[in-house]
Amino acid sequence: MKLSQFKFKLPEEQIAQYPAHHRDESRLMVLHKKSGDIEHRQYFKDILDYFDDKDVFIFNDTKVFPARLYGNKEKTGARIEVFLLRELNEDLRLWDVLVDPARKIRIGNKLYFGEDDSMVAEVIDNTTSRGRTLRFLYDGPHDEFKAALYALGEAPLPKHIVKRPAEPEDMERFQCIFARNEGAVTAPSSGLHFSRELMKRLEIKGVDFAYVTMHCGLGNFRDIDVEDLTKHKMDSEEMFVEADACRIVNAAKDGGHRVCAVGTTVQRVIETAVGTDGHLKEFTGWTNKFIFPPYEFNVADCMVANFYMPYSTLLMLTAAYGGYDLVMQGYKEALKEGYRFGTYGDAMLILND
User: Are 145 and 138 spatial neighbours (Cβ–Cβ below 8 Å)?
Assistant: First the structure.
């Protein structure tokens, strides 16, 4: 497959800037792989109609932290966006970050954060054209430092949500209701459609839930700059698959029940951690698995996805799962029918039958 095969014209007005008023009331498109049929459902919560007792949903329970900060450069006072990626060393308060504009920031520069410049950081390393290592100059306990740092941050909404500034409620809505393991700088967007009410109704129907963790990084939004997809390298992301998830998923597979991967990150996790026998295995580590057509999936027999941006690795994985022709036909209908795209957009359910 070539990069150019994932091009489509997306009107700006169809890129969702806000989530649906109720999480489970975004729209839902259903693709049936065997028949090629495409259904349009009014609400995401209609997903209930496709699952029964002992079916399993696999969720990514990573938790987003407020990773976008704005500081001022010493002497010049220039406003600098600092995007926290991950903590490198707790004791030394070292963080891997992106800075923008990068050309203004050099080793030795100090940045001041907060209305009273209460948080100070020093640039100690240049790692890439935009990347830096910051050392935060803070003497208190680590928990106190993290609380102070996060209080300065805002929800790290992706760049395609561009029409508005961040708002206080964004941090709650840019978080799945089952999020618990902190470490992501972007939400696993397909999980955002699940409300507490919908989860309860699925439980009452006998559906089981399994949780895995992948700390979603900005690599999900990085531009691909090669036409030949075999030459693209994904950023590595940390992931965890524990025994309980393996037990739940493998029992469903062995019992002939549906296993639904909620989102592209879950697909990458379970395809990284699958054994040669098709069973899910425990795993702790990192993955840079890049899935694009053609690809033979081993674990899930259905998938929840969002409507993703043109040229994105997320669209490529979805097309690998649903079949390139069917998924792109679904996107064509979504554009015609006014579906909303992006992190806060509408949802797609892909069924193998």
Answer: yes
- What are the extents of the domains in the chain? 3-64+171-351, 68-152
Could you tell me which of 308, 99, 77, 68 has the C-alpha nearest to residue 167?
68
Separation of alpha carbons 311 and 307, rounded Å: 12
pTM: 0.92
**Could you please report the per-residue DSSP string of 246-270?**
HHHHHHHHHTT--EEEESHHHHHHH
Same fold, 3-64+171-351 and 68-152: no
Question: For residue 162, what pLDDT is reported?
Answer: 61
CB-based contact 240:283 (threshold 8 Å): yes
DSSP, residue by residue, 189-244: GGGGG--HHHHHHHHHTT-EEEEEEE---GGGGPPP--SBGGG--PPPEEEEE-HH
193: tokens are 């459609």
Q: What are residue 132's DSSP bridge partners?
A: 97, 126
Confidence of residue 130 (pLDDT cuts 50, 70, 90): low
pLDDT band at 115 (very low <50, low <70, confident <90, very high): confident
Which residue from 239, 257, 250, 263 is spatially nearest to 59, judged by alpha carbons?
Answer: 263
Q: Do 305 and 262 form a contact (C-beta atoms < 8 A)?
A: no
Nearest to 183 by CA among 71, 300, 286, 100: 286
Q: Tokens for 5?
A: 């095969």
Helices (H), the chain: 142-152, 170-173, 196-204, 243-254, 264-272, 313-322, 324-337
Topology (CATH level 3) of domain 3-64+171-351: QueA-like (3.40.1780)
- Classify domain 68-152 by CATH number: 2.40.10.240
The residue to which tokens 């102070």 are assigned: 148
On the question of pLDDT at 235 being above 90, the answer is no
Beta strands 119-126 and 110-113: pairing type? antiparallel
